[in-house]
Design a protein that fits this description.
heterodimer; A: about 140 residues; mainly alpha; 5 helices; B: about 90 residues; 3 helices; sodium:proton antiporter activity (chain B)
């Protein structure tokens, strides 16, 4: 019997974007409110999992043509580079720095190198979760 | 006065969750258990909201939204397993 997933697919088209926006919100707000790279990465991968549930592996691979193993590698590289970049300035490993800048659209905000480290965590979490789910989903 | 109202609401939600746990254990068929689990998730959201009022903090608001999303995805995955025996298909149009 061929089933029809029209309601699930229509809900997914709206909900996936809301989940991705929420994950970006808790990723960027991790310094001042609960959240951070780990929960943000898990929410992003759960949005992709919702797409996988409503559609299939082939369609989602067409929407997001990325290799998630590269996410793990680039996230680890970003974290290592951020941690060891402080050695260039003659300070101990993993020393973070921040500064206040005036950006044209965003106003007076502080830019912190911990965000780059957190971005590495985010990429590793998305990569590991999606690699596990896809590997289990593909096996017959 | 207000904290008493919150505590009464907390007790009512807990009793409602107890009834749902009974349905979860006793439920004759699997769909009964899935619906009970979904409703437990919704009650957990209400519990966290009441707790964040009673503790006078807004730090739990992210947890509420997160639990709603995760509960929806979990119920969807269970429903798809019951319907198709295959949660993530390789090619839908085959």
């Amino acid at each position: 019997m061929k089933t029809n997933d029209l309601i699930l697919q229509t809900v997914t088209k709206v909900a996936a974007f809301v989940i991705i926006l929420f994950s970006l919100s808790i990723f960027l707000g991790g310094h001042y409110s609960p959240g951070g790279g780990f929960v943000g990465g898990l929410m992003t991968s759960s949005a992709i999992i919702l797409l996988l549930l409503a559609y299939d592996l082939k369609t989602v691979a067409g929407i997001l043509p990325v290799d998630y193993k590269l996410f793990i590698a680039s996230g680890l590289l970003l974290s290592v580079l951020t941690a060891s970049g402080s050695l260039l300035f003659g300070v101990p490993l993993m020393t973070h720095a921040f500064t206040y800048v005036d950006l044209p659209l965003l106003g007076h905000i502080s830019l912190h190198t911990a965000v780059l480290f957190d971005l590495g965590v985010y990429l590793v979490v998305v990569g590991v979760t999606m690699t596990i789910i896809q590997t289990i989903g593909e096996s017959e | 006065m207000f904290s008493i109202i919150i505590q009464i609401a907390l007790i009512c939600i807990s009793l409602s969750m107890l009834g749902l746990v009974y349905r979860l254990i006793k439920g004759p068929s699997t769909p009964d258990r899935v619906v009970a689990l979904d409703a437990i998730g919704i009650n957990l959201i209400a519990l966290i909201a009441l707790l964040s009022i009673s503790l006078d903090t807004s730090a739990y608001l992210e947890a509420i939204l997160l639990l709603a999303i995760v509960s929806f995805i979990g119920t969807t995955a269970f429903s798809k397993f019951l319907e198709k025996e295959d949660i993530i298909e390789h090619d839908r149009n085959l």
